[in-house]
Amino acid sequence: MYISSPSVEEPQEIPRTPETAELIFIGGHESTGTGLMRVMLDAHPLIRCGAEPMVTLEILNMRHSIKGVRRQRAIKAGVYPEAYDQAVASFILKVVERMGSPAPYLCHKQPMTFNYLGYLGYLFPKAKFIHMIRDGRAVVASSITRGLGPKFGRDQQHEALKRWERIVIPILRDCQDIGKARCITVRYEKLVLRTEDETRKLFGTLIICSISIAILNKNGD
Question: Record's family (predicted)?
Fold first, then answer.
């Protein structure tokens, strides 16, 4: 006798606007564990973290390049800054939504978008932000080995450390300004050494009650 298997209900897409979207943004300096965090969150059944969308950083760069005469013309046309900001927010939201299957929580990971952390916090008032940070010496060594960011040589580690500091300090300030209820700084070293404790602390900020065991297992892969 044939017994049909129970149908699995497909997750439905949730209507979202930039003002209401409870997105999760992951960012920070390169080589700080943003990829690890993305994989861990993606293992949770309620969260979907897609691949890294380079286009969001490009649109943020473009938005903040509007200066001088171009800005004055946009102001006179009545489209700056409100219409510009609405367009940027809608664009980013649509990219995040279309990067994978529907899920209750959508996640966006692109490290250097956190150069605009304060702006993202303004565009998405319901979003949560995970700032990954790692010992600067380890970051520099990893970035040089992997060829990320400006091409520093092995004899230019001091210059690379200065760049790390210039990037990280403003992000820390922006995260503090956004507030601990919405922005959490996660140290890569602690996440690796005390995975369960740090993950529980993280999910306390995200206000997602259940921690899937799959997330904790991802760190051991």
Answer: Belongs to the protein sulfotransferase family.
Distances (CA, A) of 123 to 59, 169, 211, 218: 13, 21, 28, 31
DSSP, collapsed to helix, strand or coil, labels residue 106 as strand
CA torsion 61-173-83-57 (nearest 10°) is 30
Residue 120 CB neighbours (<10 A): 25
Examine the residue annotation and report whether 52 is marked as an active-site residue of this protein. yes
Q: How far is the CA of 147 from the CAs of 42, 153, 197, in angstroms?
A: 26, 9, 32
Catalytic residue among 52, 97, 159, 196: 52
Least confident of 134-138, 140-144, 150-154, 171-175: 150-154
DSSP state of 148: -
**CA dihedral defined by 23, 90, 102, 201, rounded to 10 degrees?**
0
Average pLDDT over residues 113-122: 98
Helical axes 82-97 vs 54-63, angle rounded to 10°:
180
pTM assigned to the model? 0.87
Determine the distance from the C-alpha atom of residue 135 to the mean position of all C-alpha atoms in its chain, rounded to a whole number. 19
Confidence (pLDDT) at 64: 95
As to burial, measured by CB atoms within 10 angstroms (0-12 exposed, 13-18 middle, 19+ buried), residue 74 is middle
